[in-house]
Fold this protein.
Amino acid sequence: MTELLFTVASSFRWIDLLDILVVSYLVYRVLLLIRGTHAVQMLTGLGVLGLAFIASLRFELFTLNWLLAHFFNSMILIIIVLFQDDLRRALTHVGKNPFFAGVRSEEEQAIVDEVTRVAMRMAKERIGALIVFERETGLKNFIETGAKIDARVRGELIYSIFIPTSPIHDGAMIISNGRIAAAGCFLSLTKNPNIDKNLGTRHRAAIGLTEETDAVVILVSEEVGQVHLVKSGRITSNLSEEELRSSLAVLLELYDAARVKAEKAKGKVRVEVGNAR
């Protein structure tokens, strides 16, 4: 036994350790990516079929073994078909596009303040809105579906976009690199079959976008006059002005670690911020 351990140790290279660490990190990131999604259920189903395949070999169930063997022979194609949405979301995280690239620090909080104030105003007046903050994942495909604006973030402009008489009030407004990139944009609706059936198209669009990307969405509900924050496919409902401002600042990384901890302790942050980026 000692000789075997010595042989293994002597043949172990530093590149092997690097190889193990890289694979471990990739597995960890994949698990984080699929956590809480329907992909977990599909992986569980594949695991059950794998156990059935092993059992068919052990108990000589030839017909079952033949069927499962042909099934697993096409595993790569099956994975692509079953996990196409999750694979697309994973690939979009490869490129990085910081939200405030090129924006001075003194302007960052001003943008959050402008958006927060106008969101609360629209909620009070029962004006529906979808305001999207682009983060690391680029949203160019969605921006191209709307009307290009490329303007500074101003509350009056945002308000004029979402008033019912505006021709682009039904779509989403996207803020990219600290500027209003476009409005009237069409977003992908969520495909999650387990969400509340009472949620409308605006809610489903916000959930769908944040399931595919790392964007943060402010959703103003005209039906109930409330402001919600959507991140990673989850809705934090009925935020106050102070909660919305603090949560946005945390998610867009305007606060340092100590400030984040203090804001959470005060109850001003109601969204999960452990993996903000």
